[in-house]
Description:
4-stranded mixed beta sheet, alpha/beta, 5 helices, 32% strand
Amino acid sequence: MTICIIDYGAGNLHSAAKAVTRAAEAMGLSVTVSRDANALASASHIILPGVGAFADCMQGLRAAEGMIAALEEEVLHKGKPFLGICVGAQMLLSKGTEHGEHAGLGWIPGEVVPISTKPKPEWMQGPFRVPHMGWNTLDITQPHPCLADWQAEDHAYFVHSFHAKPENPAHILASSQYGGEITACIGRDNLLGTQFHPEKSGASGLKLIENFVQQ
């Protein structure tokens, strides 16, 4: 089996590929990083990383010839396990609202909205800043195999100014707290998206990746 990490010019490919390769090698799986839409047909798992602005990432994905059509075929129609990371997760939504409204993939109805800038809550130490950059615990609201080993004291690493707001609360798998509740993980069926970076979240993040590639 092969795990394909999509290269569309906007992902944190090096650290993502390193973490995924570490998890895959222990199970005898191979990892490929590719911009070729045809590579998805032979993949058993598909990962879409993302760093930067929503609109730029969507533009980069559209510019990869045939990639969106191949994703729809392999992920939506054939049901291959899919993991979106950071903006790669946000693009699952219907639209993003960063610098105007921009259409997403629309696989999970909803929109990507700014982190609230309301006054700092009493529990928060230090100044309230956006983008949110740092470590936070997760509140798992819906069970998912990839989150099965996540413990209450485990921390995930975030770097973002926007987060997903699905229309259906059941599509929110985990949340966190930063200026109020933020969406940390979304999903449905074979789709999983993490607003945090599992490849940068230590042993807990690596375990999430291991659980993903075991699906």
